[in-house]
Amino acid sequence: MIEFIPPAFIYILGALLVPLLRGKVKSAYMLLLPLISFFFLINVQVGTVWEINFLGFDLVPFKVDRLSLVFAYIFHLISLVGIIYTISFKSDLEYVAGLVYAGSALGVVFAGDLFTFFVFWEMLTVSALWLIWARRTKASQAAGFRYLMVHVFGGLVLLAGIIMYISEQHSISLGFIGLHSPATYCIFIGMGINAAWPLLHTWLPDAYPESTVGGAVFLSAFTTKTAVYALARTFPGTEELIWIGAVMTAFPIFFAVIENDLRRVLSYSLINQVGFMMVGIGIGTQLSINGTAAHAFAHILYKSLLFMSMGAVMFRTGKINATDLGGLYKSMPWTALFCAIGAASISAFPLTSGFVSKSMVIDAAAHGHMSIIWLALVFASAGVFHHSGIKIPFFAFFSHDAGHRVKEAPASMLIAMGIAAFFCIFLGVYPKFLYSILPYPVDFVPYTASHVLFQLQLLMFSALAFTLLLLSGIYPAEIRAINIDTDWFYRKGGRLFYQVMDKGLNAVNRTVERVFIGEFLVGLTRFVRELPGKLLAQICWPFWKTAFDAPDKKTISENLLKRAQSGFYPIGIMGLFAAIYFSLLFLL
Amino acid sequence: MSTEKKHIFDNPKNVKKVLFGLFGSLVLLLCLEPFVHKHSYFAWEKWFGFYAIYGFVACVLLVLAAKYVLRPLVKREEDYYD
């Protein structure tokens, strides 16, 4: 009887069999994988640790505590939802990549040592890449390549940090690290790149909107949330994270307001939501860590729900820009409804999941009397409603009718969205379920009269602002344009770098070739070729002048040179004859 | 288009109803405030209508800043990177 198989094994090894199966067996098999893995998971005890000694290090490929479990539960749930969503696509590449991707994320959350952690962390990048490339467009290829470059860089920074850290600590166990040395700063930044910190964030709005319809659903769930887990594990209570998080919640909403591609809008709001989690980790109290875990759980559901609804729109209409959409509630009413539920949840309306999770982080900031942070978070809460809560459903499903008359999303997509929507509301109505799986005991009551009222005031008056701005025509019209972000530095900068290198290094190359090969070497060979002849002529001239009845120096010199070049020296011949002569004398 | 079914928001009356619903709920939310016991952390939370005003002002500033400051800085043609 097998007692337990770690989820990462089931997902990753299970994924390899997917391409061998066909038809209904394949669908059933893929749906069973997360369920089997989940079955094993609910039977595992908190505190279970597997240790393997490897080259003198204690590898801990599997270690369970309550923080890992929260993330593992939601990763199972969302991978099941993602599989249902994509089940009709018949794309083996996406299935295998998606399952390996989810498995790697599960590997990270159960890793008990830095080595295992890093291996799964890198697998996350590699598998995610295929979900972007599977779209098979030129834009997705380029975006995937940039994604790879950024994450390989991040991975190297992390690896450098880990190696230095191991040599400092003489241990590879993964636990609290804290910021105190160059090694820990490297680890911090390496994780921060995956968490999409400000200025390091652009891989996310660059790559996710270019991924496949189903790929974006997986992508939105795993990479950033695995980084959230990693930071919560290793850097809780690090004050820098509070400020990083506050900036993260605030700046993306400005970009989201003027962005045309609706999946890019969602990508910006993803960063905004992860910002709340960063603040929670940075505060580092039990309430705030609980808030981070709860918010990650809730966020994965409603963010993937939103990506699913936009994916369904893209699947049916082939369009994703706000300028090309509108009025879709007529032909896709269920998708519109599910999108609205996701939008309400991300906006943290009472009775939705966002309300019961986000308020924990905001309350934790208030407990710590962090007034600026608190104001930023409340501003971001209003802002996220503005661009994700209203803008996404409004421009896709309402607004001006763009004339698309399409079929409702396929049943499998609707079921997947339905499950996610159900959980968005279930967690909001029955928060005890969510609170019972959090890392620490929860002493938090989300539904107080004042809290509900204030949240509603905040949101409804934001809605009023949107309505008035829209009716007055001030609201920025959606424009067919793109907005540059800090990825400009490596996209244009990369090209500039290439040109500088091209012009600079190739010019050096050409100059060196001209000077060294074209002139110096030619000169050197000529010099070497002509030197003996000329020297000979100089030395021998006084003798030859008398010995031969020479007409002039020039002709003799030329003859000598020719002979010298061909190695045919008169002096050599004479020497040879002399040698032969003396040999003969000697022998006879 | 005449054969197509009329949908709910094709009728301007329904759009108006939504708007009036919104305005009504705003008034209601403000009217309820005096009856709610506030347990606040910051002084400004005690001000009447703080959340309402903050939400409204935040969103207006957000949109104005995005439209008049950020967009002129970052907007490029769609083929900018090609």
Give a concise summary:
With 588 residues, chain A is an all-alpha fold. Chain A has helices at residues 7-17, 23-42, 66-86, 92-110, 114-133, 138-169, 182-194, 203-207, 215-234, 239-258, 262-283, 286-317, 333-346, 353-367, 371-397, 411-429, 431-436, 449-471, 488-547, 553-565, 570-587; strands spanning 49-54, 57-63, 482-483.
The radius of gyration of chain A is 35 Å
SSE string of chain A: HHEEHHHHHHHHHHHHHHHHEHHH
| Sheet with the most strands, sense and barrel status of chain B | none
* Number of helical stretches of at least 4 residues of chain A: 21
Span of the ends, CA to CA of chain B: 40 Å
The residue fraction in helices of chain B comes out at 55-70%
* Multimer state: heterodimer
Approximate strand percentage of chain A: under 5%
Structure description:
The complex is a heterodimer of chains A (588) and B (82). Among the domains of chain A are: 236-482, no CATH class; 491-587, no CATH class. Chain A is 73% helix and 3% strand. Chain A has helices at 7-17, 23-42, 66-86, 92-110, 114-133, 138-169, 182-194, 203-207, 215-234, 239-258, 262-283, 286-317, 333-346, 353-367, 371-397, 411-429, 431-436, 449-471, 488-547, 553-565, 570-587, and strands at 49-54, 57-63, 482-483. In chain A, a hairpin with a 2-residue loop joins strand 1 (49-54) and strand 2 (57-63). Chain B is built from 2 helices and 1 strand, in the order H-H-E. Chain B has one domain (8-74). Helix content of chain B is 56%, strand content 2%. By secondary structure, chain B is mainly alpha-helical. Chain B is flat, with a radius of gyration of 21 Å. The two termini of chain B are 40 Å apart. At the A-B interface, helix 10, helix 15, helix 18 and strand 3 of A face helix 1, helix 2 and strand 1 of B.
